[in-house]
Design brief:
The longest helix has 28 residues, at about 65-95. This protein is of the alpha/beta class. Helix 11 (about 280-295) crosses helix 13 (about 320-330), helix 16 crosses helix 17 (about 400-405) and helix 17 (about 400-405) packs across helix 18. It has 19 helices and 14 strands. The strands form 5 sheets. It has a 5-stranded parallel β-sheet. A 3-stranded parallel β-sheet has the order 1-2-3, sandwiched between helices. A two-stranded antiparallel ribbon has the order 6-7.
Length: about 425
C-alpha cells in the first residue's frame, strides 16, 4: 500500500506478525479513502465497535457465505465512489468563499453545497428551511459571499426578537415624528442592505400585516418608511429562513400563500444532525480543537463510551447543541480524554432518544414540554449523580455549583431538597 493504490482491503483480524486492527490503522494513514472490511472468527461486540471506530467500513464474522461478502464488497465500493466524489467537490468548494465554515462531507450536506454554488451567482430569492441549530445563517452567508454582491452589506434580522411595530421600523425605517418614540429619522435595514443581501431569519414569525408589506417590497422593489409618503427604490437580494413548515402555516391561514410562493423560488432544506450522523466525528473533532485551543487545554479525544453516547443521541438542538455539549465537556474534562459524565447528557432515555420514542420537538414550546416530560420520567439516581458531581467539583459550594450548571441558586437548592441532599452533611463526610 506504500507503492500501489487499492480500491478495497479485506483483512483477517487474528494474524501472525501484525493484527488486522494494526493493518487497519496503517491503511488509514497510507490510503485513508480505502474501505476496509475486517473478518474474524473471534466475534465480539467490543471488537466490532473498536474496528468501526478505527475506520473500518464493516465487520463480518466467520462463517459467512460468498453472497454476504460480495454484498459487503459492493456496498464498500459504492461508498468509496461517493467519498471520491466528495473529495472532488471539496476541492471545488475551496475555490469558493465561506465554505470553510461548514463541517461535514455527508451525502446530505453535499446536496446543500451544490445548491449554494448553483444559486449564489443569481439574484433569486432563497428560502432556507431546517430545524433550529442546523446552520441556516451559515448557508445565507455562503450564498452572499459567493455572489456578485459579496462586496456589499450582508444584513441579518432575527424576526423573533422584535415586536411587530419595532420590526416594521427596523425593516422599512421611519420618519422623525411619525410615532411617539420616533425622535429622529431612521434608515430601514432594507436600505442599509442596498446593493447587498438581506437575511430574514425565522420569517414565519412576522405578522400578516408585515407579510403584506414585505410582499409589496418584493413585487415593487421599493420601500416606504413609516410616516413617509415617497417610496424609496432598493436593490437587494432576499434570503429568508424558517424552522417551521410554511405550507402548513399557509393552510392554517397564518402565512400568506402569495408571499410563500415569492419566497420559495429557490428552496434549500438543511438536514438535521440525526440524518447526517456520518458527519458526527468530524464535527466533534472540529469543536474539540476549537474549544481546547480557546481554553488552553490539551484534549486529545473522547473516551469510547462517551463517543458511543453521542452516536446514539438524537440531538434535538442539532449542530448548535453538539457545539454546546463539546464546549461544556472541554470545560469539565479533568484529563486529556472527555469522559461520558463530562457530556452531562443527564436525562433518562435521552442518551438514545428512547425517552422521546424518536420524536423531535418542532418548536420552542414543544421542546420545553418535551424536556418537562423527560424530566418527570428521569430516575432519581441520575439527578443525584449530576448534583453530587457539581458539588464535588466546586468543593460543596452551592452558589458556585449552581452557576457552573447554569441553574439559579434557589432552583439548585430546591433540587437538593427534592433529592434529600445536604451539602453541609456531605462536606462533613
Amino acid at each position: 500500500m506504500q507503492d500501489e493504490n487499492f480500491s478495497l482491503v479485506i483483512t483477517d483480524l487474528k494474524m501472525p506478525g501484525m493484527s488486522g486492527m494494526e493493518v487497519l490503522k496503517a491503511i488509514k494513514v497510507l490510503q485513508p479513502e480505502v474501505p476496509v472490511i475486517i473478518i474474524t472468527g473471534f466475534s465480539t461486540v467490543d471488537t466490532a465497535v473498536e474496528a468501526m471506530k478505527n475506520g473500518a467500513f464493516d465487520y463480518i464474522a466467520k462463517p459467512f457465505t460468498p453472497e454476504q461478502i460480495v454484498e459487503k464488497v459492493r456496498k464498500a465500493l459504492a461508498q468509496r465512489a461517493v467519498l471520491l466524489e466528495n473529495i472532488f467537490l471539496k476541492k471545488e468548494l475551496g475555490e469558493h468563499h465561506g465554505f470553510d465554515l461548514f463541517v461535514g462531507e455527508s451525502k446530505e450536506m453535499q446536496k446543500v453545497y451544490r445548491r449554494i454554488i448553483q444559486v449564489a451567482p443569481t439574484d433569486s430569492t432563497v428560502l432556507i428551511t431546517g430545524e433550529s441549530g442546523t446552520g441556516k445563517e451559515l448557508v445565507a452567508r455562503a450564498i452572499h459571499n459567493n455572489s456578485h454582491r459579496r462586496d456589499n452589506p450582508f444584513v441579518a434580522v432575527d424576526c423573533t426578537s422584535l415586536a411587530e411595530t419595532l420590526l416594521e421600523s427596523e425593516l422599512f425605517g421611519h420618519i422623525k415624528g411619525s410615532f411617539t418614540r420616533a425622535i429622529q429619522t431612521k434608515t430601514g435595514l432594507f436600505k442599509v442592505a442596498d446593493g447587498g443581501t438581506l437575511f430574514l431569519d425565522e420569517i414565519s414569525n412576522i405578522s400578516l400585516t408585515t407579510q403584506a408589506k414585505l410582499l409589496r417590497v418584493l413585487q415593487e422593489r421599493e420601500i416606504t418608511p413609516i410616516g413617509g409618503t415617497q417610496p424609496v427604490p432598493i436593490d437587494i437580494r432576499l434570503v429568508a429562513a424558517t424552522n417551521k413548515n410554511l405550507r402548513t402555516l399557509v393552510s392554517q391561514g397564518s402565512f400568506r400563500e402569495d408571499l410563500f410562493f415569492r419566497l420559495n423560488i429557490i428552496p434549500i432544506d438543511l438536514p438535521p444532525l440525526r440524518e447526517r450522523k456520518g458527519d458526527l466525528p468530524q464535527l466533534i473533532g472540529h469543536f474539540l480543537t476549537t474549544f481546547s485551543e480557546e481554553m488552553g487545554k490539551e484534549i486529545r479525544g473522547l473516551a469510547p463510551d462517551a463517543l458511543a453516547l453521542l452516536e446514539e443521541y438524537n440531538f434535538p438542538g442539532n449542530v448548535r447543541e453538539l457545539e454546546n455539549i463539546i464546549e461544556r465537556a472541554v470545560v469539565l474534562a479533568e484529563g486529556d480524554l472527555i469522559q461520558k459524565e463530562d457530556l452531562e447528557l443527564r436525562v433518562a432515555g435521552n442518551e438514545t432518544g428512547g425517552g422521546l420514542g424518536g420524536y423531535v420537538p418542532q418548536n420552542v414550546d414543544e421542546l420545553k414540554e418535551t424536556k418537562r416530560q423527560i424530566r418527570e420520567r428521569a430516575v432519581e439516581p441520575i439527578e443525584k449523580a449530576f448534583v453530587l458531581q457539581a458539588l464535588k467539583r466546586n468543593n460543596w459550594n452551592i452558589t458556585r455549583a449552581a452557576e457552573e450548571t447554569g441553574m439559579l441558586r434557589p432552583n439548585f437548592q430546591a433540587l437538593l431538597k427534592k433529592l434529600r441532599i445536604s451539602a453541609r452533611n456531605q462536606m462533613g463526610n
